[in-house]
Amino acid sequence: MNFTYEEVNLMALYNSGSRERLIEVLTEMRTYLTWSETELRDLTDSTLDKLAGMSDAEFDALELYPDFM
Q1: What phi and psi values does residue 5 have, to the nearest 5 degrees?
Q2: What's the helix, strand, coil split of the chain in %, to 5?
Q3: In angstroms, rounded to a whole number, what is the distance separating the alpha carbons of residues 13 and 16?
Q4: Contact in structure between 12 and 65 (CB atoms under 8 Å)
Q5: 51, 37, 32, 64 alpha-carbon torsion, rounded to 10°
Q6: Which end of the chain is flanked by fewer CB atoms within 10 Å, N or C?
Q7: Whole-angstrom Cα distance, residue 29 to residue 11?
Q8: Residues 6+ apart with CB under 8 A from 33
Q9: pLDDT tens, position by position, for the chain (69 residues)?
């Protein structure tokens, strides 16, 4: 699965150890977004779509470290 730089950073910020739990956390976080936060909503949606389309083993192989440089 090809994640963008922004998607990887989002997952690193909210990663809680498993793909399933990350999906739950991102889904919950999305409910707190306002309608004006369209970019973050779109980023969250694309990340959730990609997470749903991958296996737990593929997720476990990801290196989710934030890169704020």
Answers
A1: -55, -45
A2: 60, 0, 40
A3: 9
A4: yes
A5: 30
A6: C
A7: 12
A8: 40, 41, 44
A9: 799 999 999 999 999 889 999 999 999 999 999 999 999 999 999 999 999 999 999 999 998 876 666
N residues, the chain:
69
Q: How far is CA 44 from the centre of its chain?
A: 6
DSSP string, 5-47: HHHHHHHHHH--SSHHHHHHHHHHHHHT--TT-HHHHHHHHHH
Q: What is the pLDDT of residue 23?
A: 98
Listed by start position, the domains of the chain span 5-60
